[in-house]
Structures are given as structure tokens and as C-alpha cells.
Amino acid sequence: MYKDNGIDPEGLLSTIPSIAHVLLGFCVGRMMLDSNRAESREALLNSHLIKLFLVGAILTFASFLLSYGCPINKKIWSPTFVLTTCGLASSFLALLIWIIDVKGYKKWCTFFEAFGVNPLFMYVLGGVLSILFGSISFPWGDGSISIHGFLYKIVLMPIFGETGGSLAYALLFVAINWCIGYQLYKRKIYIKI
């Protein structure tokens, strides 16, 4: 499958760090579930948020120290890549919890809540729309063109160029998915398994 330089990113050597990635995420999630039992916002801030931020800082620092012997490499999921991503994600999660839950700045979160209340549905919707946009064609010029081809090649690429058009198409695709998710969110429709 990967014929570029002989590294299989889905082999045994990258499976072990990916398992560690999942387990670190589980530990962080468990720590945050324990924080729901905190009596007050001050207890949440003083205990679990500081722990979460420290875990993130320690993991990130350790990854940079170890990167001299084991480079940070996403393609092969090196152990230092796992430490870097888990560390940065933990620190960022601590920052978001502090901003949203402790300080109470929630108005800007509506965009993300539309995705978050129906995450599995939004994931499947993105895949289904991607397939549909690539499969559904209509007549154009001498032949036919897909919805994806029309939006990217005819509408966005002439305006933004090749690279900018690709980014604009990705943002447009996210916006289309968000519009559907927001309608479900606004009507309080939650799709669960």
C-alpha cells in the first residue's frame, strides 16, 4: 500500500504507540470524569485543571527531550509523536475547560456544540456527503462534472487558486455539515446509538 520508502505506518511498531495514545487519552478522560465530583469551581481549578496542565507540560517536555534520540514523526507514530500530541492536547483541554467551565465564556462555543451533540452522526454525515459530492454528476459543457468537481474547479479554484481553492472547498464542506448539524442542535434532535 505505501510504496514510498518502505515504512508501514499501520504495522506493529506504530500500533504500540497508538495503543499508548489511546490509553493516555483514557487516563485524561478518567481524570476529567473524576473532576465532575468536585464540590466547587475552585476545587476543579485547583486540583484537576492544574494536574491536567502539568501532565500536558510534562509529556510535551519529555517528548522534546527524547526527540534527540527518537525524532517526532507522525508517519510512523513514534513514541515522541505520541507524547507531543498527548501533551499538547492535555494542555489545550485544560485551557478550554478553564475558559469555558471556570470563567464561563460560552457564547463562542455554539459553532462547536452543533458538532459535539451529535458527533457520530456528524462523522457519518461527512463521509456520506463526501461520497455523494464525488458520485453525483450533472451535465456540464461537453461532458459531466461531479458536485465536488463543480465547486472546486469551476467555482472556487478560479477565485482562490489551486491551494486556496482546496482550503476554501474544505471550509465550505465543513460549513455545509455544520448547517445540517446546527439545525439538529437548534431543534434539540440528538441522534444516539
How is this structure best described in words?
It is a single chain. The longest helix has 40 residues, at 147-186. The two termini are 33 Å apart. Helix 1 runs antiparallel to helix 2 (41-66), helix 4 (110-116) packs across helix 6 and helix 5 packs antiparallel against helix 6. It is globular, with a radius of gyration of 22 Å. Strands 1-2 form a two-stranded antiparallel sheet. It has helices spanning 12-35, 41-66, 79-102, 110-116, 119-135, 147-186; strands at 137-140, 143-146. It folds into 2 domains: 12-105; 112-186, no CATH class. It has 193 residues and is mainly alpha-helical.
Number of separate structural domains: 2
* Biggest beta-sheet profile: 2 strands, antiparallel
What's the helix-strand series? HHHHHEEH
Which bin fits the share of residues in helices?
over 70%
Regarding quaternary structure, what we see is single chain
- From the alpha-carbon coordinates, what is the Rg to the nearest angstrom? 22 Å
Number of helices: 6
Strand order of the largest sheet: 1-2
Our measurement of the CA-to-CA distance between the termini, rounded to an integer number of angstroms, reads 33 Å
Low-confidence stretches: none
SSE inventory with pairings:
Layout: H1 12-35, H2 41-66, H3 79-102, H4 110-116, H5 119-135, E1 137-140, E2 143-146, H6 147-186
Antiparallel strand pairs: 1-2
Helix pairs in contact: 1-2, 1-3, 2-3, 4-6, 5-6
Protein name: DUF5009 domain-containing protein
Keywords: Membrane, Transmembrane, Transmembrane helix
Transmembrane segments: 12-33, 48-68, 80-100, 120-138, 167-185
